[in-house]
Design goal:
Layout: H1 30-46, H2 53-81, H3 89-100, E1 106-113, E2 119-126, H4 132-145, H5 155-161, E3 168-171, H6 174-182, E4 186-190, E5 196-199, H7 229-239, E6 245-252, E7 258-265, H8 271-282, H9 293-296, E8 311-313, H10 316-324, E9 328-331, E10 338-341, H11 359-389, H12 396-405, H13 413-419
Antiparallel strand pairs: 1-2, 2-4, 3-5, 4-5, 6-7, 7-9, 8-10, 9-10
Length: about 425
């Protein structure tokens, strides 16, 4: 008898994975571009019998392209050689300059660590995305005024005794440290240390929290989501103060590095649904993700269906209510609309105001919505069927009335209904 594998008992994702494997994102290498340009230039020169002006201009164009490709190739080689920090402040400044291209919003400041030690250091951050007061008072002032540092300070001496920022962590990978800097953190390079210190100094310019304009209501909560991911998470936590509320981060987009937050309540949400969504988000093949609409098409199998299974809303109370029903919410930075799924058709006919009125008032409003839905779907087909296909189903006097009303109309009932 075959022994059952324990892995077979694990919960399978409710949403099957039908996404294809991520395609390699490698473009043409600079070396191949150089070879192609030289080959094209050789072919152009082989066709020259007598020098002509247009031929010489063509050769000059190939030469300019060749020089540009060579410059790009050398720049790539230079960056590849500088993919790690060697421990000196001068190399850190050169590393940042060659990586970000000398951007005007990237600020680098030379500092000295220790009042008596005077060890060279460098601070780098993106202007406009950090709290400069925290950098000046909690980082630079403490570093320059430190008096009890040993001759060879270690990472703990800097992070625990000197740094006063709210969150500090070391990093040995230059690529990950660069992404953190571009998100608003501050990088600290101290000569002699083998790791880069990343300080959390994020301070985004953000708009004030306003009322919902897409789904306004007369009674009940009015608060809409903000554009900042951390503020969105805090808005949900204010309504669901439970330790089972989880926010899992999935990074998508090799250029945007968008941190999509997947919110759910452990114990209420199906673990298979969470695993399936996490797998789909990690396999999104897009260079740039800025809105929830860009990832919504990757979350369903049937993209051409007329019945939506994904709901987008900017109301915090609706997202909190859906989470309490065992659903999953996706929060995309820079987008005030959250995605909740899965959804039924009747979920789109429920509003927040249904829960602020009493039972009879809410039931009457929902009944009116349902009658309007049925009338909108079946009224026109029923009219065409009774007037054109089988008028015998109607009373004779009603048929004569409808027929007399259509005297002089040059269109059949089907065309008339389509125009209406």
């Amino acid at each position: 008898m075959r022994r059952r594998d324990p892995s077979e008992n694990r919960a399978r994702p409710v949403i099957p994975n039908t996404l294809s494997r991520r395609r390699p994102r490698h473009g043409p290498s600079p070396a191949r571009q150089i070879i192609k340009t030289v080959t094209d230039a050789q072919r152009a020169l082989s066709r020259i019998s007598t020098p002509r002006a247009d031929t010489l201009r063509q050769v000059k164009t190939y030469a300019d392209v060749l020089l540009q490709n060579v410059d790009n190739f050398l720049a790539d080689l230079k960056i590849a050689r500088m993919s790690s920090w060697d421990g000196s402040a001068a190399h850190a400044k050169t590393l940042i300059t060659n990586t970000v291209g000398g951007a005007s919003d990237v600020v680098t400041r030379q500092i000295t660590v220790g009042r008596t030690l005077k060890r060279p250091g460098l601070i780098a951050y993106v202007d406009g995305m950090v709290d400069t007061q925290v950098i000046d008072q909690d980082i630079i002032r403490h570093l320059e005024a430190a008096a009890d540092l040993p001759d060879q300070p270690g990472m703990d001496d800097i992070t625990q005794s000197v740094m006063a920022a709210s969150s500090v962590k070391p990093s040995d990978q230059w690529e990950s440290a660069l992404v953190e800097m571009l998100r608003g953190s501050t990088l600290l390079f101290v000569e002699g240390l083998s790791s880069i210190i990343i300080a959390d100094t994020v301070k985004y310019p953000q708009r004030a929290i306003t009322d919902s304009t897409a789904e306004p209501s007369i009674k009940g909560p009015q608060e809409a989501f903000s554009d900042i991911g951390l503020v969105q998470m805090s808005q949900i936590r204010r309504r669901i103060a439970s330790p089972d509320l989880r926010f899992d981060t999935v990074t998508t987009g090799p250029y945007s590095h968008t941190n999509v937050q997947m919110a759910y309540i452990r114990g209420l949400t199906n673990p298979g649904l969470v695993d399936g969504l996490r797998l789909r988000l990690s396999h999104i093949d897009r260079d740039w993700v800025q809105m929830g609409n860009e990832i919504s098409t990757f979350l369903t199998d049937k993209r051409m269906t007329l019945f939506p299974v994904i709901r987008m809303t900017d109301r915090v109370d609706i997202v909190a209510r859906d989470l309490m029903q065992g659903k999953v919410a996706l929060l995309v930075p820079n987008d005030p609309f959250a995605i909740t799924l899965p959804n039924r058709l009747l979920d789109f006919y429920q509003t927040t105001q249904d829960y602020v009125f009493n039972f009879w008032e809410s039931s009457l409003v929902r009944l009116i919505r349902l009658v309007g839905l049925v009338a909108g779907v079946y009224a026109m087909p029923l009219y065409i069927a009774l007037t054109s296909v089988d008028p015998d189903l109607m009373p004779t006097r009603l048929v004569l009335t409808l027929t007399g009303g259509r005297i002089g109309v040059p269109f059949p009932p089907v065309t008339e209904a389509a125009i209406m």
